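Page 47, continued from p. 46.
Same chain as before, 326 aa.
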Amino acid sequence: MSRLRSVVAGFGSALPRARVTNDDLVARGVETSDEWIRQRTGIAGRYMADADETTVSLATSAARAALDRAGMGPDDVDLIVLGTTTPDDTFPASATQVQAALGIHHGFAFDVQAVCSGFVYALAMADNCLRLGQARAALVIGAETFTRLLDWEDRTTCVLFGDGAGAVVLRAEEGTGTNADRGILTTHLHSDGRHRDALYVDGGPSTTGTVGHVRMKGQEVFRHAVNRLAEVVDEALTATGIRPDEIDWLVPHQANRRIIDAMGRKLGLPPEKVVVTVDRHANTSAASIPLALAEAAADGRIQPGQLVLIEAMGGGFTWGSSLIRW
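Result:
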């Protein structure tokens, strides 16, 4: 039976101008070392936004690149969903500001806040809208200026994060309703608010009136990530009947190299089938998966027709997965 599918028509990314290595952080006074960071996280560097680079400006650049790659213009897009934890303003939504910057004066735009799972959540929301006929084409963006939230006295968190943006264009196309269709085949979302204190920001408009800083219990987050991500990957495979050995690419949230490697081993994928950018980008929260997708598609690794599995977990806790035929 035929059905509408949300097909990836284009992709793009944007990184701040400034690349900051681990040694640069040491030079800035962070009490750490390149060896300490690499051994525990796999991170060698990250990009940090300057004062004139914001979540909206990075998101807009990534969105423009995705539209160019898709051969589409502002008139072709009637939905923007932006996953971010670091909006330019408390309101309006950063997605509406991207909409204005792109010259899109129709349709609708909104933000999704699910921290590191933000892009997976945004993708699911856009997919639902396209399949229901509420939009014909969507920009799905993950964008963060996460370094604005860091406490530079806390070496356990400040070395982990970076800034950036990635985007994909989704276009509604008729499919056969089988796994052979191009587009999003399945999405699975979860949250469990009982774990708020394991990963959070200690500020907000209705509590402290400040932005606050990231606080994290690293071991607890690691333990939950490995278990929850394994479960949500199994959900995607079970829902579609696809075997792990049929997956062409795993594009995970780029939080920690050890978690990434563990997921690759669970699926039985060789390391060359797992897209890794954490070494160069660090953890860019909602931007990490679309940045990795854009890099792997641009350099020719991800090819049309291949099966791509994405998964992420973030503060909340939130977690999710999606299986896409590129």
